[in-house]
Design goal:
The complex is a heterodimer. Chain A contains no helices and 12 strands. Chain A is an all-beta fold. In chain A, a hairpin with a 4-residue loop joins strand 8 and strand 9. The radius of gyration of chain A is 14 Å and the shape is globular. Chain B is an all-beta fold. Chain B is built from no helices and 11 strands. In chain B, strands 2, 4, 5, 6, 9, 10 and 11 form a 7-stranded mixed β-sheet that branches. A 4-stranded antiparallel β-sheet of chain B has the order 1-3-8-7, with no helix packed on it. Chain B is globular. Classes of the chains: A mainly beta, B mainly beta. The interface between A and B is medium-sized, with 25 and 26 residues.
Amino acid sequence: AQSVTQPDIHITVSEGASLELRCNYSYGATPYLFWYVQSPGQGLQLLLKYFSGDTLVQGIKGFEAEFKRSQSSFNLRKPSVHWSDAAEYFCAVGTTNFGNEKLTFGTGTRLTIIP
Amino acid sequence: EPEVTQTPSHQVTQMGQEVILRCVPISNHLYFYWYRQILGQKVEFLVSFYNNEISEKSEIFDDQFSVERPDGSNFTLKIRSTKLEDSAMYFCASRRRLNTEAFFGQGTRLTVV
């Protein structure tokens, strides 16, 4: 069965510093990979997605992620974080079963930004 | 920009009562989903719905749960007899077709007391 691991439960970063959030997945076929962000009291907003092609994908709010098949990873990066980036970040893998797709989420990484 | 809308944003109900969570997916989307997130835990898949029928459901989605698309625009999740452990944030999502991203609503926080 598919699974997603986000090894960092909580990360604290200074404003303006770079950020990398780790995500590892387990899935037998080629995965569809996603990063979602959830601000307090808000829903899930898609940051970026990987379906195929270029393994470095750009998303909204200056985020990017790199798919590395050999490492089964899809880490999220941002060169310089802003205070507004404080939120919970979820990595997810999309899996297809008989033509249906569903998302399997990781446990999330809570990002705190300090001035 | 089109969005998935969920109502209510927060619902408190007594154990054993029936609740209906409502969602209005994006209008040209064909695939609909419910997920839930128990406080402090990961987001979990409950059920997917396509062509007016359930296409897949998780182990969580037992006989107490049902989904319906009654009028071509709303997509509802009914919990027949709520239990304390049903307390969670419930997210509705929709997608236009396979191999595209799912758009999520803001969620309904269900509290069972």
